[in-house]
Amino acid sequence: MRSWIIALLVGLASGAASAQPIMPEIGQADIEDFIDTPETTRPRLSPDGRFLAYMVHTDHEIDGDVLIIQDLDAEEGTEALRGGFGRFPIINIAWASNNRVLVTLLIDGQVQFGRYFSMSAPIVRTLSIDRRDITQPVVLFESEGRRVFQNIYNAAGNTLVHSLPDDPEHVLMSAYRGDALHLWRVNVFTGEADVVERGNSRTLHWHTDATGFAVMRIDSISNGRQIRVFTREPGARRWRRTRTYRVNELTDRNADFDWVGISDQPGMIYVFSRQEGADRRGLYLYDIANETYAEVMAEHDRYDIQRGIVSPHGGAFLGYAYQADRMEVEIVDPDLRRHYRGIVGFFGENVSVMPEEFSGDRMVLVVSGPREPGVYYLYDRAERSISPIFSSRPRLPPDVLHDVEILRYQASDGLQLTAYLTRPRRGMGPATPLVLLPHGGPEMRDIYDFDLFAQYYASQGYAVLQPNFRGSSGYGRAFAESGYGAWGDRMQRDLDDAVQSLIDQGRVAPDRICIAGFSYGGYAALVGGAQRPDLYQCVFAGAAVTDLIGFVDHWEDVDEDAHEYWQEAIGNTQTDRDRLFWVSPVNLADRMTMPVLLVHSTDDPIVPFEHSRMMADALEEAGAEYHFQIFSDGGHSFNRTGLLRSILTQSTELFDRTIGPDRFSNEPIFPEELFPDVEIVESVKGAVSVLEEASTD
């Protein structure tokens, strides 16, 4: 075994010179390098593994998004097939067969509403293209009329459900007709389509067995906040409701019951499930007819199972993955496991190596870590070689990024917790400034991987600490629910304890600490500033919940299930009213003696904009030093390039003036040229423009 692995590593090293380029020991990236995210699609292997298709974006008006198809068996130096689509973005690529690839484009269409009204809206066109001649594409669904062809619901793309390998002319795809998502049998040579299974306005996904028979349908109700899973055995007509569970936009809690893939046993599929009374989610072989779990495929005593690795051709179970500090992959197929161990040894322990696709003797891998934002590689099992395909952030090579340390610390009540510390280039010591960056949710979690904000702040000289406080997801249901009713209390102490552990070790300056975050993280930042003005020298809060009573009551009018969840997670606004009042930042503004930066978008669909407006009013009344930056098109996540630029710039200026190099200057904390008292919106070109004045009083 040892000699086999060594041989594999030698083969990998000789075939991957360009995968691990020699970098200078120290590099420096600017803000544009961090926010630049080239548009790409996930690389797709043809069913036989010979061809690789993916998209790259160019700024050239004629080419636009370019489809690239590589013949992996061609002689060295053979040019890949390339085809540009002009101003139409490619949003998805999938193989229908070894010779035909499906390319979904997003175009500007005219959508008709009734007889007299129409409007411009994004719609999709899925093309079936012969890989040998891309000049003669076939447009799918073209004959179905405007209820399908001009349907705004299909803007997310027509989804390939099954390639029907025994029927080279057809595939199964899901697409909307009207507001109902149906399953269609589509001819990839003519574009003609017929409905084979009818969904409804609540249907989200279709899944089939190995023969193409639909065995699972997933619906949503209550404005998408409750999921219903229906199953049926092969050949049956009637659907049975198998599971109902609740979802929430502010959590990344894993689905309690979900599809993994087809199996190699008739009448059975692989599913994720959190079984009745179980604390963690496992992966199981599920008997559809008997509604039972036939076999445990993967369970973990601490973490939810996150991924299943199943052969797309035959349904053999190959392995699984779970999120510990990094994504850990366990391969159960003996031959594949030997290859995978060699690959992991080649890349080292500071990254995660996730198999994404398997076809023939080849597989596509994605490699990511704190200093590797994500690179796709192609591995050839026969050649034992690995080569890069593309990087998701080519302007951020490893030499410009910063090391992340995994910290284990003990909370003040004795609970053992985990945090991630991104270290600045100059190292850690008693004079190092620190940014505490709690995650949102709170039922989410941070991981040992690339983090845009942590890496950018570290590039500006700040250590960044990201604790997984109680209430975080990923460690089982009991750990997540241990945060219920503990907002502003035990959850907040976990954050303070993480900071104190670094102070006690002499690794950060006790008088140079700021707390920052978004959503729940923004709430925690404001509460931290109010409860511990002795510990935190500034606060940055984005899209923060500031009034717990108002937030919970808001959901009563919006969605019953969401309201029930928030009453469990935060508290009952009748019986817990006094407690919730005194852990709501809007009622604690007079305790905030440090500068506070608030940002919020007027179109936030999750945390109403009024939360930050009320917080700004309370800070104004208290005579606090603050700035409220209003955006108009940031939603809840602020993921537009121009908005990220503004937020990173303003938050870093706040840190510089309070705990950084400018902390002793006489300049104001919020100079008008950097913190304009105006509403900001991202322009079409991605720049930030001032549109209109927005008073904060």
Features:
single chain, 697 residues, alpha+beta, 4-stranded antiparallel sheet
Into which percent range does the helicity of residues fall? Answer: 10-25%
**Main pleated sheet:** 10 strands, mixed
Q: State the shape.
A: globular
Structural class: alpha+beta
- Number of strand elements: 37
How big a fraction of the residues is strand? 35-45%
Instruction: Report the C-alpha radius of gyration, rounded.
Output: 26 Å
The chain-level mean pLDDT equals 86
What is the helix tally? 13
End-to-end separation = 71 Å
Low-pLDDT runs of 5+ residues are 1-26, 682-697
Trace the largest sheet across and list its strands: 28-29-31-30-32-33-34-35-36-37
Protein name: S9 family peptidase
Keywords: Hydrolase, Signal
Domain Peptidase S9 prolyl oligopeptidase catalytic: 450-656
EC number: 3.4.-.-
Furnish the topology, listing elements before pairings.
Elements: H1 2-14, H2 31-35, E1 44-45, E2 51-57, E3 65-71, E4 81-84, E5 90-95, E6 100-113, E7 117-130, E8 133-139, H3 146-149, E9 159-162, E10 170-177, E11 180-187, E12 193-197, E13 203-208, E14 214-221, E15 226-231, E16 240-246, E17 257-262, E18 268-273, E19 282-287, E20 292-298, E21 305-310, E22 317-323, E23 327-331, H4 334-347, E24 352-359, E25 362-369, E26 372-380, E27 385-391, E28 404-410, E29 416-422, E30 434-436, H5 452-459, E31 463-468, H6 477-481, H7 490-504, E32 513-518, H8 520-531, E33 538-542, H9 548-558, H10 560-569, H11 577-582, E34 596-601, H12 610-622, E35 626-631, H13 641-658, E36 678-682, E37 688-693
Parallel strand pairs: 30-31, 30-32, 32-33, 33-34, 34-35, 35-36
Antiparallel strand pairs: 1-2, 2-3, 3-4, 5-6, 6-7, 7-8, 9-10, 10-11, 11-12, 13-14, 14-15, 15-16, 17-18, 18-19, 19-20, 21-22, 22-23, 24-25, 25-26, 26-27, 28-29, 29-31, 36-37
